[in-house]
Amino acid sequence: MDELIYRYALLEQIEKDSEGTLGSYGENWQFINTIRKMPTIERRPKGEWVYHENDMFCVRWNKWECNQCHERVEYKYDFCPNCGADMRGGDAE
Ligand SMILES: [Zn+2]
C-alpha cells in the first residue's frame, strides 16, 4: 500500500523546522517548489451501506442507502456511485 503525505502539513513542518529562513532565496526553495508541483489526490470519505426493507413489495427497489450522501442504490458497490465514498469497510448495523 502506498503511503500518502499531506502536502500542507509537510510544507508547514518544513517552514517550522527552518525557523523562518525560508524565502524565495532560501536554500530549500527548489525543494519546496518540487513539493508544490507533486500531484495530489483527494481524500475519500469512508461510508457504509444501510439496508432498507422492501416495504412497497416492488420487484426492484433501491435497498442500499449510502450513509454519507443518503442516495439509494439497488446493489452494494465498493464506492458510492453518487458521492464516491469508500464503502469497503462493511455495512452499518
Ligand atoms: Zn454516497
Question: What do these coordinates show?
Answer:
With 93 residues, this protein is an alpha+beta fold. It folds into 2 domains: 7-37, no CATH class; 44-93, no CATH class. It has helices at residues 7-17, 29-37, and strands at 49-51, 64-66, 72-73. A 3-stranded antiparallel β-sheet has the order 1-2-3, with no helix packed on it. A hairpin with a 5-residue loop joins strand 2 and strand 3. The chain starts with 6 loop residues before the first helix and ends in a 20-residue tail after the last strand. Residues 47, 66, 68-69, 71, 80, 82-83, 85 line the site of zinc ion (ZN).
List the helices and strands and how they pair.
Layout: H1 7-17, H2 29-37, E1 49-51, E2 64-66, E3 72-73
Antiparallel strand pairs: 1-2, 2-3
The site of zinc ion (ZN) has 9 residues, from loops.
